[in-house]
Fold this protein.
Amino acid sequence: MTGPASAPREGEPRDGAPHEGAPLEGAHCVVAYDCLFPWTIGGAERWYRSLAEQLVSSGARVTYLTRVQWDGDPPAIPGVDVVAVQQRCELYLPDGTRKTGPPLRFGVGVFSWLGRHRGDVDSVHVANFPYFSLLGARLALLGTATPLVADWFEVWPATFWRRYAGTVAGTVGAAVQEVCLAASPHALVFWEHTARRIRAHRLHGELTVLPGLLPSREVNPAAQLGTPARPVALFAGRHVKDKGVRQLAEALRVARCDVPSLEMVIAGEGPETDLIESELTRLGVREAAALTGKVSDDELERLVAHASCVLVASVREGYGLMAVEAAALGTPAVVAAHPENAAVGHVVDGVNGFVVEPTASGLARGIVRCVEGGAALRASTAQWYAAHAPSMSMASSARAVVELYRRLGVAGR
């Protein structure tokens, strides 16, 4: 989902003023990611926007290297210089996998900009994926003492790489991942599962597990815990194969055998939208489903609050933010138990949702259990969120990064 957000949240601009005694006073910190919130919306985009703002409030001057996603002049973000090192382009193939060309060009852009400015840079922060920006930054900083910090949202086994990109491209992708792990002097992760995988690769650099990626929000469980007026299962995300969208229609059909009044809301859009609609029609459940297209943040929050559950049917998720954010509104999650779906780490069966067999029938059983759980399940979901959110926040992660920078000696020249 793309487009400017309607209201400030964590990860959106504040006043940009550094706090008194700021630990990074005068430092020039670079953040490099090929997407920028809210022109592109996703968990990683929110994280890098939030991180940039936290660095500014800690006294740093921030340059955000990205690609063009806007019309006209670059966005004006207090304390942040947004620099496009790549022109506007489409990042994905029709089946939802990342194209190879755009990441290569972004990596070249990052390398070129850092090569010209490395004498005026005190730290560089990149995502592990797409990998070429990490490699470009590493090459540009050779011979300098400038810290390079890389967020590792996911580490894929070679078998998954081949399923994702094909035998040849997948083998190359797995090899590039190994090179990037070796090129990461400071690796950050948001899930212990990813940390274990990185340790198995014998990372020679430093590894830090950050608290999480939850945005701050006011939670009023008493206003959210009533059973929805009608049973609704909600899917929100890009309509691509890896999000599990091909199972939605069959899951709805099977679940309606136990809950005849069940409806499904499918938000978002993508290359598989037409396939979803045709499957709903073929299985005779088109009238029980609503495809909303893109929705605003406020509308998505309303949909989540009025749903019996949210569906995270993904083959892969680097964090699974939807499952956790929904819990703030008392809405449980049904999560497919795929090995690369990080959302499974955020759900306790029967407490804030269910981790289910990664099939349409498994999703259907999870939906039915959430409907049957009613207000009691919603109450325990909100309680789970209240207990865990303070230790899983994006703000806490951003502060931890500032502390890491301070320990690494990042400071103004």
Remarks:
- Residues 360-388 form the longest helix (29 residues).
- Residues 1-15 have pLDDT under 50 and may be disordered.
- The domain at 221-390 is CATH 3.40.50.2000 (Rossmann fold).
- The chain has two domains: 28-215+393-407, 221-390.
